[in-house]
């Protein structure tokens, strides 16, 4: 068995929001810089499975005109409470999340990429399934919106293993779970 890790790779505002209350993500563009992907392509080479919540999945479809780009690169799971048939390279999963992650980790492969949102992050944290947190902090204070960490979970001890500061003001921090 490989030592596959479940990695939360996500962006948030300095005050901890993923999006505004009305799901606006346009503020992420303040760090866009030609030729700079903040390590995203290199990270993508280390993963072969992508997990996302249904709300985030639907937002991606809305932003891309109905195309789910991750399905062309990775095995994709959308975590949902609804029963749905697989479609367009995406498997909809409504079972036990721990069993899914254990099943993926028990097979040979690369790491598992979780992109959010807050509901799936909370669910994974409740089961202590996230091995690494790689968070890009965007230099903006939104003041209100949809939080990355919803709370009401047990305390988690983590340790910093990397941090990078970019010219745009974006800071990327990487933490791993302490056992």
What Rg, in angstroms, do the CA atoms define? 16 Å
Mean pLDDT: 93
Q: How many strands in all?
A: 10
CATH topology: Dihydrofolate Reductase, subunit A
What is the name of the CATH superfamily?
Dihydrofolate Reductase, subunit A
Structural class: alpha/beta
**Broad shape:** globular
As a percent range, the share of helical residues equals 10-25%
Largest sheet data: 8 strands, mixed
How many structurally independent domains?
1
The H-and-E topology, N to C, reads as: EEHEHEEHEHEEEE
Number of helical segments with 4 or more residues = 4
In terms of DSSP E residues, the strand content is 25-35%
- Flag low-confidence runs: none
Question: Within the largest sheet, what's the order of strands?
Answer: 5-4-3-6-1-7-10-9
Q: What is the correct CATH architecture?
A: 3-Layer(aba) Sandwich
End-to-end separation: 20 Å
- Top-tier CATH class: Alpha Beta
Report on the architecture of this protein.
The chain is an alpha/beta fold and 179 residues long. The chain has a single domain (6-27, 50-177), classed as Dihydrofolate Reductase, subunit A. The chain contains four helices and ten strands. It has helices at 40-44, 54-63, 97-106, 118-126; strands spanning 6-13, 17-19, 47-53, 75-79, 90-93, 111-114, 132-138, 146-147, 158-165, 171-177. It has an eight-stranded mixed sheet. It has a two-stranded antiparallel ribbon with strand order 2-8. α2 (54-63) links the parallel β3 and β4 (75-79).
């Amino acid at each position: 068995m490989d030592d596959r890790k479940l990695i939360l790779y996500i962006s948030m505002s300095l005050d901890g929001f993923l999006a505004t209350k009305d799901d606006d993500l346009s503020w992420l563009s303040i760090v866009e810089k030609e030729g700079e992907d903040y390590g995203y392509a290199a990270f993508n080479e280390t993963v072969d499975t992508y997990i996302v919540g249904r709300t985030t999945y639907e937002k991606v479809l809305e932003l891309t005109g109905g195309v789910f780009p991750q399905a062309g690169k990775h095995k994709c799971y959308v975590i949902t409470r609804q029963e749905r048939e697989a479609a367009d390279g995406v498997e909809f999963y409504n079972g036990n999340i721990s069993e899914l992650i254990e099943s993926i980790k028990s097979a040979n492969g690369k790491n598992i990429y979780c992109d959010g949102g807050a509901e799936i992050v909370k669910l994974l944290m409740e089961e202590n399934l996230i091995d690494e947190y790689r968070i890009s902090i965007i230099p903006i204070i939104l003041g209100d919106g949809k939080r990355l960490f919803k709370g009401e979970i047990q305390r988690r001890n983590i340790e910093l293993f990397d941090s990078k500061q970019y010219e745009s003001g974006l800071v990327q921090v990487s933490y791993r779970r302490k056992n």
